[in-house]
From TrEMBL:
Its EC number is 3.1.4.-. Its cofactor is a divalent metal cation. Belongs to the metallophosphoesterase superfamily. YfcE family. The lineage of its organism: Bacteria, Bacillati, Bacillota, Bacilli, Bacillales. Keywords: Metal-binding. Residues 1-143 form the Calcineurin-like phosphoesterase domain. Pfam families: Metallophos_2 (PF12850). InterPro entries: Calcineurin-like_PHP_lpxH, Metallo-depent_PP-like, Phosphodiesterase_MJ0936/Vps29. It comes from Solibacillus palustris. It comes from the Bacteria. It is an enzyme of class 3 (hydrolase). Gene3D superfamilies: 3.60.21.10. This is Phosphoesterase.
Length: 166
């Protein structure tokens, strides 16, 4: 089962549509906030989406918990949990919700970490990346024994992978 995860596209509806077209086989498509588009915008349709600090449409929720094949996937932007300083507030929230996977953005820094049995994923930014040159998004393939994270640039070139045994 594959998830497509992106964040921090800051008004670029074209890149959202392009990235969605790269992986039409994804079971769920997730935007971790700061799309800067209206909630009902066509580019945001058929996506799980949350409110970032640059999103002003009141229809966005601050967080969403998705059930995917027995997994609990928690999605938030991250600004409400000070993710630029430390992951700990987000770790505590994920534990409260019983999440297996956490998807967040805000820092524009691509990264993934396995903390206390929870897989934390920041897909970076498709508009203004930090610490790497690639404008990035990720896919996560979920199997009963592991997670496979694939990191792509905005042209769908795979440039990194992470394998996590559970």
């Amino acid at each position: 089962m594959k998830l497509l995860i992106m964040s921090d596209t800051h008004g670029d509806e074209e890149i959202i549509e392009r990235v969605k077209s790269y992986h039409p086989d994804a079971y769920k498509m997730i935007h971790c906030g700061d799309s800067e588009l209206p909630y009902s915008h066509s580019a945001m349709q058929n996506m799980e989406r949350v409110k970032g600090n640059c999103d002003y449409d009141q229809n966005y929720l601050d967080e969403v918990l998705i059930h995917v094949n027995g997994e609990r996937v928690y999605v938030t932007h991250g600004h409400l949990y000070d993710v630029k300083s430390s992951p700990m507030k987000l770790v505590y929230r994920a534990k409260e919700l019983g999440a297996n996977i956490v998807c967040f953005g805000h820092s524009h820094i691509l990264g993934a970490e396995y903390i206390d049995g929870i897989f934390f994923i920041n897909p970076g930014s498709l508009k203004k990346p930090r610490q790497i040159k690639e404008k990035s998004f990720v896919t996560v393939t979920i199997s009963p024994t592991h997670y496979l994270l694939d990191c792509y640039d905005d042209k769908n070139n795979l440039f990194d992978q992470m394998f996590i045994e559970r």
